[in-house]
Structure formats: C-alpha cells, structure tokens
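ARCHIVE CARD
CATEGORY: sequence design from structure
SOURCE FIELD: tokenized fold
FIELD CONTENT:
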C-alpha cells in the first residue's frame, strides 16, 4: 500500500508540476505519511520530481519564452545559484523546525498564486527593473532549493509580475527553471546524505510519466480551471499539515 501511495502521489505530482506547480503538495505528505522524517521527505520528494520537471519542460517546448528583460542564459545562472543556496540551508535545518514551517510555506505559496492575477493588474502600469527581476528569481530559486513545495506556484506568480501574460509560455519556463534549480539542489542533498534513493528512484518513473502527460493535456485546459484546482490543492495540504501539528 505504501508503494501504491508513493507511485500515485508522484504521478499526479508530476502532472501538477507540468500544469502549474504544486506537486510537492502531494509527494511530501505521502512520504511523511509512510514514516519518513520531514527534511529527508522533502529532499527525497524533490529528487523524485526532477525528471518530471524535465519531461514537463519538453512537453511545453513550443511555448517556452523568458519574461521581458531577462535572457535564458541569465535565468540559468540565477536558478543554479539560488537552488544551491536553498539546498545548503535545508541541510542545516532541524526536522522539528522544518515541520513547523512547512504549513506556513504551503499557505503563503498558495495565497500568492491565488492573488497573482490581481497583483499583475495593479502593477500593470509599471515595468519591473532588471535588478528587481534578478532578486526575485534568486529568492524564488533559493526557496525552491530549500522547500520545493509550491515552487511552481511562486514561479508562475513571479513571471506574471515580470510581465509575462501567456500561461503556456509561463508553464514552459517554470519547468525549465524548476529543473535547473532542482538539479543543483539534488546534488547537494545527495552529498549531505538526506535522500532515500529506493523511494526516490521509484517515484521518479511515475513523476516522469505524469510530467509529460500533464504538459500535453494542460495545453488544452482553460486557465481558470487550472488555477482553481491548484489553489484548492494547496489549501487542503496546508490544512492537513496544520492538523498534524
């Protein structure tokens, strides 16, 4: 039953990440439910979702485009730097501390995604500077290297605030940035010995299938349906973690 739970969570998580983010809302609770300590569960779930990000990025290959003012090369550098910093911070965070902050991180990510369209409308008259864009990408990449839960939601909100308007283009870029920062974070997690490889490798297969399938299907789903589903997922998972405390 634990194997079925982990495979199912990884498959749906891969699809969610390809669509608009929030996959770790499923993999982290599934691993914790099977008895894995929170920090190890976060690292293991992140490893499992890496190929799903790659598959999702390939699925959106026709639509991917950087936000105004940034280049793909700069995004690569920022993603790697931020992801490395966040992963290093996770390695020195005690399990008890991480368990307390998880529901708040989930809730904050979900709230930001929910109000993303309104924020973009209010900021429509201004054009973000390159400096602010760089700081924003670095901060979100560091968050992704540390926690990963809600990473896609934060990236979508950030790209929207930076001036991108096409959801499919945002999704494609989100998957590429997620793959880059997750790859460097995985290397650091592995060096720190906080990855359960049997569970991670098993979940990788399911997440990859879900990532590619989700990306191809998402291109045909109305954007408001995607947003509503992701906000609901984030609220439910945050509530479950608050309840466990």
């Amino acid at each position: 039953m634990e194997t079925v739970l982990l495979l199912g969570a990884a498959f749906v998580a891969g699809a969610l990440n390809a669509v608009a983010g929030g996959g770790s809302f499923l993999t982290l609770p599934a691993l914790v439910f099977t008895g894995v300590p929170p920090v190890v569960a976060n690292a293991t779930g992140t490893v499992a979702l890496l190929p799903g990000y790659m598959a999702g990025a390939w699925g959106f290959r026709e639509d991917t485009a950087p936000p105004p003012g940034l280049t793909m090369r700069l995004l690569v550098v920022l993603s790697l730097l931020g992801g490395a910093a966040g992963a290093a911070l996770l390695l020195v965070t005690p399990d008890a501390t991480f368990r307390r902050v998880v529901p708040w991180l989930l809730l904050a990510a979900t709230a930001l995604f929910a109000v993303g369209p309104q924020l973009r409308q209010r900021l429509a008259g201004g054009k973000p500077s390159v400096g602010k864009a760089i700081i924003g990408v670095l901060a979100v990449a560091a968050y992704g290297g540390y926690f990963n839960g809600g990473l896609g939601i934060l990236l979508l909100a950030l790209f929207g605030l930076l001036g991108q308007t096409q959801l499919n283009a945002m999704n494609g870029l989100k998957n590429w940035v997620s793959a880059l920062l997750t790859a460097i974070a995985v290397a650091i997690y592995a060096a720190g010995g906080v990855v359960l490889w049997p569970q991670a490798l098993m979940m990788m297969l399911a997440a990859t299938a879900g990532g590619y399938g989700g990306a191809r299907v998402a291109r045909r789903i109305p954007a408001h349906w995607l947003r509503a589903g992701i906000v609901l997922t984030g609220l439910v998972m945050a509530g479950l973690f608050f309840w466990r405390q």
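CARD ANNOTATION: Residues 225 and 231 are 10 Å apart (CA to CA). The chain has eleven helices and no strands.
SHELF: design records, drawer C
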